[in-house]
Amino acid sequence: MKGRERAELRSEAHHLDPKVHVGAGGLSAQLITSLDDALRTHELVKVRLGKNADVKAKDAAASLALATSSEVIQVIGHTATFYRENPDLKKGDVPPWRR
Q1: pTM above 0.85, yes or no
Q2: Residues contacting residue 21 through CB under 8 Å, at least 6 positions apart
Q3: Is 42 a member of any domain?
Q4: Do 9 and 44 meet the contact criterion of CB atoms below 8 Å apart?
Q5: Residue 81 domain-assigned?
Q6: The domain spanning residue 68 has which CATH number?
Q7: Bridge partners, residue 21, by sequence
Q8: Cα distance between residue 11 and residue 24, in whole Å
């Protein structure tokens, strides 16, 4: 992904609320499934990482991106933003994260 595309997605994600929350269970299979479902329907998803997690936010984001075949757009504090294009969603319409 080019820098310009990443910057555009960062600006789009600014107003989004986290759809997935990482809690005491950590990076479990259920969490990965939840993130995968959110990426399939929304393409651009924020994830809130627990403050008490024993894994650094950037490391957790990299692991989640690898597990879901998505890209990390940014990590700020305990919040990571992911993007994965869904070819089944119609092109030219309003992006799914704006609906």
Answers
A1: yes
A2: 47, 48, 50
A3: yes
A4: yes
A5: yes
A6: 3.30.110.60
A7: 48
A8: 30
- Residue 76 tokens read as 């700020």
**What 3 state SS string does the chain have?**
CCHHHHHHHHHHHCCCCCCEEECCCCCCHHHHHHHHHHHHHHCEEEEEECCCCCCCHHHHHHHHHHHHCCEEEEEECCEEEEECCCCCCCCCCCCHHHC
* Cα atoms found within 13 Å of the Cα of residue 71, Cβ hemisphere only: 14
Q: What is the CA radius of gyration of the chain?
A: 13
Enclosing domain of residue 43: 3-85
99 within domain boundaries: no
Tell me, yes or no, whether 76 lies in a domain.
yes
Domain count within the chain: 1
Per-residue pLDDT tens for 36-88?
999 998 899 999 988 776 778 899 999 999 999 999 999 999 999 999 988 77
Handedness of CA 1, 88, 95, 70 (dihedral sign): negative
